[in-house]
């Protein structure tokens, strides 16, 4: 399931908010990019979480009985 950046930032700014604080996806992206620059980039915790994600991405969970790799790839396009 894909989410729009505006929706994610809306929920993070307050779950009770019904309207996004940004008028477009570009405005939301620019906000994130400027915040990233101002804070000096990704935090050490975020980098560790990403490294953990990369290492465990291929943990074999997709080898379910009855499914082939082709079944998974058919839905990835």
By DSSP (H or I, 4+ residues per run), the number of helices equals: 4
Strand content: under 5%
Outline type = extended
What is the mean pLDDT?
A: 76
The low-confidence parts are none
What distance separates the N and C termini?
A: 13 Å
Supply the helix-strand structural class.
mainly alpha
Order of helices and strands: HHHH
Helicity level: 55-70%
**How can the largest sheet be summarized?**
none
Topology, number of strands: 0
Report on the architecture of this protein.
With 77 residues, this protein is mostly helical. It contains four helices and no strands. The mean pLDDT is 76.
What does this entry show, briefly?
It contains 4 helices and no strands. The chain is an all-alpha fold and 77 residues long. The chain has helices spanning 5-13, 25-39, 44-56, 69-74.
């Amino acid at each position: 399931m894909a989410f729009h950046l505006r929706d994610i930032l809306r929920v993070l700014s307050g779950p009770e908010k019904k309207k996004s604080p940004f008028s477009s996806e570009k405005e939301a992206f620019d906000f994130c990019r400027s915040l990233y620059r101002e804070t000096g980039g990704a935090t050490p915790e975020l980098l560790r979480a990403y490294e953990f994600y990369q290492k465990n991405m291929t943990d074999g969970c997709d080898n379910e009985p009855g499914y082939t790799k082709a079944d998974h790839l058919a839905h990835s396009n």
